[in-house]
């Protein structure tokens, strides 16, 4: 992990994407959104969230 990488909680990602808990966990389960587990806590690096958004924007532009 690079210096300055912020880790987000699932509720923080839910708020940023305006999605429900199930939708965020579906993105994680389908490996569209990378995450790590620390103990029992799931964390999402900010760069993984940015990558998801970038990928979706590129897909929309190509459609």
From TrEMBL:
The organism of origin for this protein: Streptomyces filamentosus (Streptomyces roseosporus)
Upper classification of the organism: Bacteria, Bacillati, Actinomycetota, Actinomycetes, Kitasatosporales
Residue stretches making up the Helix-turn-helix domain: 7-55
A Pfam family of this chain: HTH_17
InterPro entries membership: HTH_17
Protein name: Helix-turn-helix domain-containing protein
